[in-house]
Design brief:
It contains eight helices and eight strands. It has about 300 residues and is of the alpha+beta class. Strands 3-2-5 form a three-stranded antiparallel sheet. A three-stranded antiparallel sheet has the order 6-7-8. A hairpin with a 2-residue loop joins strand 2 and strand 3. It is elongated, with a radius of gyration of 51 Å.
């Protein structure tokens, strides 16, 4: 009976040891094994491997890309503008042994290093560079972080500045600056258009000076366009040049003839009304004679 108990106890202990000896880790994990305090040569995994209970200690390392969210940092730029900047860092473990042996907690260390690097990089830039050269700043931060974290067995994949927040006063100043810039561009475009128009008018004047007939036709076309507005008064130049003075004379004569015609029409209408009135009177007299009784 005692022999059976001992055999059963030993069997149970053997099963427990076997269970503790057999380890299974996932495809994206690696196991760093410390045996009596000394690390073994290479990390284990993925799949199944055997460890010695009590003697071996295991540290599991995840090889997937890790995302570090850098909280907003209040930073003063090189041109004394206060901004709040946050960023995201993407990194992964390239060497599990170095990530365990050379740094106590590679996640915390990388996060604090990212915050410090963000402050240093943004503090050395002007505010305009932060807005317009964000890609260059991301690459610069990546190079600095990768250089520092490489001995820890960490590989920085990318860095992205996520948001740049500025005070309301600075936002209004930027809006005024943008409005002034747009006004400047519009004035430049207008002035360039006027310059081009002046050059074209100078060429046209030179061409008209060589051909008076073309100038005359252009003048007549201008008067035709002006004459479309019936409520305008046209004033012409009277000088030695025959074209303009003749045109003014023609317009004046036309105006007088039009006024005389209108006067004659009004007088004719008046006479017609008087004639119609006389005819009505004659009708009334004839009607009264015909209605008078005969004796």
């Amino acid at each position: 009976m005692q022999h059976l108990l001992i055999t059963g106890f030993l069997g149970i202990m053997t099963i427990i040891l076997l269970v503790n000896m057999i380890k299974i880790i996932k495809e994206y994990e690696r196991a760093v094994i410390f045996r009596l305090g000394r690390v073994l040569g290479t990390p284990k995994g993925p799949g199944v491997f055997i460890v010695i209970p009590i003697i071996d200690k295991i540290k599991i390392i995840d090889l997937r890309i890790l995302t570090l969210d850098i909280p907003k940092q209040g930073i003063i730029t090189r041109d004394n503008v206060t901004v709040d900047v946050d960023a995201v860092v993407y990194l992964k473990v390239a060497d599990p042994l170095d990530a365990v042996i050379k740094v106590q907690d590679y996640i915390v260390a990388s996060s604090l290093l990212s915050q410090t690097t963000l402050r240093d990089v943004i503090g050395q830039c002007d505010f305009d560079d932060i807005l317009s050269k964000r890609d260059e700043l991301n690459k610069k931060m990546k190079v600095i972080l990768d250089e520092v974290t490489n001995p820890w067995g960490i590989k920085v994949n990318s860095v992205a500045i996520r948001d740049v927040a500025i005070p309301d006063v600075m936002q209004r100043a930027i809006a005024k600056q943008a409005e002034a810039e747009r006004e400047k561009r519009s004035r430049i475009i207008i002035s360039e258009g006027e310059l081009q128009a002046a050059k074209n008018m100078a060429k046209a004047a030179e061409s008209y000076s060589k051909d008076p007939a073309a100038l005359r036709l252009r003048e007549l076309q201008t008067w035709a366009e002006v004459a479309r507005e019936k409520n305008l008064i046209i004033v012409t130049e009277v000088g030695n040049r025959g074209t303009t003075s003749d045109l003014g004379t023609v317009l004046g004569t036309t105006k007088k003839i039009q006024q005389k015609s209108e006067g004659k029409i009004i007088e004719a209408e008046k006479r017609f009304k008087e004639l119609a009135s006389d005819i009505e009177k004659i009708k009334d007299i004839l009607r009264s004679i015909m209605e008078r009784p005969t004796s």
